């Protein structure tokens, strides 16, 4: 899929399934059908997703009130209702946000949502290659890593197998940030997906 390619509405996508379960509008019939199957196979998963999303919002609100004005959200999916950039902007004037996802569909939707927001961008990259994230030109043009920033890793780390050495990968992120920065890992619970995994 190229950046200008049409989104495939016939095939469910996990980011759009999440969007539906969070009450967003960036999803299609196939995604809503997959969401029903997902909930049938994993009762309580939708509640878990909403709890994780709510935690992310509370963390951003707390950090913005504490003076953090830069946010790097890794693996947020589609920035649906109550997303990082909306919450950050509400509590920190001029807050800057970079959303990073390895899912091209999520990035395409995110770019459409953030198109007119000069303080927020979406880039396609993978947590398994943190140096690619940190060296991305769009990230560097949006965030000033010489100043404190917050890195959000909410409902993401369970997708990484132990063989990927997640602790080593995650440690590279705060090492690259200025003093006063924050790392926000968040996981209400892990669950197994149903047919449309990341």
What is this structure's SSE topology?
Blueprint (H helix, E strand, L loop, with lengths): L13 H8 L7 H13 L3 H21 L4 E5 L9 H8 L4 E6 L2 H11 L5 E5 L5 H5 L2 H6 L7 E5 L11 H10 L6 E5 L12
Parallel strand pairs: 1-2, 1-4, 2-3, 4-5
Task: Describe the model.
Helix 1 (14-21) packs across helix 2 and helix 3 packs parallel to helix 4. Strand 4, helix 8 and strand 5 form a beta-alpha-beta unit. This protein has 198 residues and is of the alpha/beta class. The longest helix has 21 residues, at 45-65. A five-stranded parallel β-sheet has the order 3-2-1-4-5. It is built from eight helices and five strands; from the N terminus they run H-H-H-E-H-E-H-E-H-H-E-H-E. It has a single domain, classed as 3-Layer(aba) Sandwich (Rossmann fold), CATH 3.40.50.150.
Whole-number total of structural domains: 1
Structural class: alpha/beta
As residue ranges, the low-confidence spans are: 190-198
Radius of gyration: 16 Å
Report the portion of residues in β strands. Answer: 5-15%
Q: What is the percent of helical residues?
A: 40-55%
Mean pLDDT: 86
CATH architecture term = 3-Layer(aba) Sandwich
How would the global form be characterised?
A: globular
Query: How do the strands line up in the largest sheet?
Result: 3-2-1-4-5
Sequence of secondary-structure elements: HHHEHEHEHHEHE
Would you kindly provide a brief summary of this structure?
The protein contains eight helices and five strands, in the order αααβαβαβααβαβ. With 198 residues, the chain is of the alpha/beta class.
């Amino acid at each position: 899929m190229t950046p200008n390619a049409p989104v495939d509405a016939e095939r469910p996508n996990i980011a759009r399934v999440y969007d539906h379960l969070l009450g967003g509008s960036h999803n299609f019939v196939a995604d809503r059908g997959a969401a029903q199957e997902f909930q049938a196979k994993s009762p309580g998963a939708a509640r878990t997703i909403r709890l994780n999303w709510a935690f992310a919002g509370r963390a951003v609100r707390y950090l913005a009130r504490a003076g953090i004005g830069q946010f790097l959200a890794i693996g947020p999916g589609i920035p649906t209702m109550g997303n990082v950039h909306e919450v950050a902007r509400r509590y920190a004037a001029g807050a800057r946000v970079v959303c990073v996802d390895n899912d091209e569909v999520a990035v395409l939707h995110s770019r459409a949502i953030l198109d007119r927001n000069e303080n927020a961008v979406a880039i396609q990259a993978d947590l398994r290659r943190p140096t690619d994230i940190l060296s991305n030109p769009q990230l560097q043009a949006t965030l000033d890593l010489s100043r404190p920033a917050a890195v959000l890793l909410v409902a993401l780390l369970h997708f990484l197998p132990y063989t990927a050495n997640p602790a080593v990968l995650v440690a590279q992120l705060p090492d690259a940030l200025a003093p006063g920065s924050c790392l926000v890992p968040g996981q209400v619970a892990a669950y197994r997906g149903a047919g449309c995994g990341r």
